[in-house]
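Assess this today:

___
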Amino acid sequence: MPQIILFLAQLISGVGGCLYSSLGLSYMDDNIKKSKTPALMSFTFCLRMLGPAIGYTISSICLKMYISPSLTPTIINSDPRWLGAWWLGWLILAGIILCLAFFFCEFER
């Protein structure tokens, strides 16, 4: 059963990546001035590569904190029983997305 779940997760991830690569880039190519297309596409690829690196950095920082930041742990973070605040990264990313969403709402229709 775990193999089936992992296979389906990879399948969905692959379909999502394929749609971006085929439809997203052609949409950008059609709707941007031809002189600006190479710069914006390279900027897009750069951000797509930086995204996972930023995510790993945020998770590394969050996992160094105890799972309940209000409590003082009796173990250190190198102990195998340590549980990091894995959920804190989701809150950080949600806050960033909400801030960016405000700016996107200000665009003209």
Notes: Helices lie at 2-31, 37-63, 88-105. The chain has three helices and no strands.
